[in-house]
Design a protein that fits this description.
68% of the residues lie in helices and 0% in strands. The protein is mainly alpha-helical.
Length: 176
């Protein structure tokens, strides 16, 4: 017999409240992130990790979007943005978000850094970043985990580690 999880009214209210908070942060981030980056010299971007306006899920999501937009045209800038996102994500306080959200924020930031490093041809560093992303992801986030594993496989094949790359892609399908 399968037991179905039935959330309490309080749990539903908490979930809805968190959803509204995250959506508000996304909207605010659109107006905050790019102007802050444009107005700050790139060598000072690491100091932005302490800016409270960037220490939100919405800002981290926006930084991830910027990494994805810039990784092919300017991988050095994408790397700088991803490094900022990692510094922010690793410093997000636990009471601010549920553990699963914090884990996802950290995993995405590390995944973006790995992707930027791969575009720069720094595949060993990319593998390290992507393995860190894997340690941050929560078991229930299988789609996110699959994306991390795909990027890991791409970096491994660039290092001529074809068996490891294949295993990274088929980690739930084929025996290892």
């Amino acid at each position: 017999m399968i037991r179905r999880f039935r959330p309490t009214p309080e749990q539903l209210a908490e979930f809805a409240s968190m959803g509204r908070k995250l959506e508000a942060e996304r909207k605010a981030a659109v107006k905050i992130v790019e102007p802050l980056l444009r107005g700050t010299p790139r060598d000072l971007w690491p100091s932005l990790a302490e800016d409270p306006d960037l220490r939100t899920s919405g800002a981290l999501e926006r930084l991830g979007t910027l990494v994805a937009q810039k990784v092919t045209e300017n991988p050095l800038e994408a790397r700088a943005i991803a490094e900022l996102a990692v510094a922010i994500a690793e410093g997000v306080s636990v009471p601010t978000y549920p553990d699963v959200v914090i884990n996802q924020l950290q995993a995405h930031a590390w995944k973006d850094l790995g992707k930027a490093l791969r575009y720069l041809g720094k595949n060993r560093e990319a593998v390290d970043a992507l393995r860190t992303a894997e340690t941050r992801i929560t078991a229930g986030l299988s789609h996110d985990h699959a994306i991390i594993r795909l990027h890991l496989a791409l970096s491994l094949q660039e290092l001529d580690q074809y068996d490891a790359a294949r295993s990274a892609i088929y980690f739930d399908i084929l025996p290892q």
